[in-house]
Amino acid sequence: MDRRDFLKKGTVAAGLAASQKVLQPLAKAAGRTAPSGSIPKRRLGKTGVELSIIGLGGMVVKDVEPRFASEIVAEAYDRGINYFDVAPTYGNAQERLGPALEPYRQKVFLACKTTKRDKSGAGQELEESLRLLRTDHLDLYQFHAVTTQEDVEKIFGPDGAMETFQAARQAGMIRFMGFSAHSVENALAMLDRYAFDTILFPTNFVLFSQANFGPQVLERARQKKMGILALKAMAKTVWPKGMKESDRPNPKCWYEPAALPEEATLALRWTLSQRITAAVPPGDEKYFRLAMDVAQKLQPLQPEEEKTLLARAAGVEPIFHLAKA
Question: Residue 197 belongs to a domain with what CATH number?
């Protein structure tokens, strides 16, 4: 199926009406180049793409003023970040990220996601994401937060979202395909069902040491030579029971992050010391800025530092668990 046939079916037509226009870099950014020697890059599996080891997650620009979104995206790009990830479930993040990223769109790697599991729903959401992000294609499109066996079966079933993904890829709407997951068991099921390009998976010191949550998924992904992207690198535990959402000191984090600055720094360095391509920090601006600083002068985690960090994880409640047998 070519692009024209795909659009005739109405799957992403509206979002592509101005495709040539939205890919034109703005004049002030036309000659802008990310500096060398800044945030380092790593290869994204078999894709051949080199990504910055830190990505800007869309939650960073959720509910901010458009001017602030433009400023922080420009700062991230200037410091060497070329990986941007967003999703429709992040409130108005797509509306903010699209205009802010437009000057750099041809020079960065843009990832988006969908929680829709059916063909029609995924097609409509893809169309809307393309429109809001002001682009005619996504570098990576992902099934978002695959958590249950039902998710897996719907995605791959008749009229499932996988049909939209494959048609969109054939039409040039997406370059690579991946998924994120909050379940070890269903992440493994996804890996068994399709040769995905990437996986976006929780990878942090508490999950690995206290719940055995993640090592088996990353190992399977490595065997398949996939690009591995890390979620929750600076996460630590669940918020205290009974704490109101309005009382959380980090409103953009549904989990309690590692404490700033030392513990969060160690946590991120631990994740970046694993065999992954990149990590997406929490949506809290303070954590994102710390992550950029850490990445720019990244040092391998030393054995004594890892020992200190894992000691802090002992007895801590992980944010995810393996399914009970």
Answer: 3.20.20.100
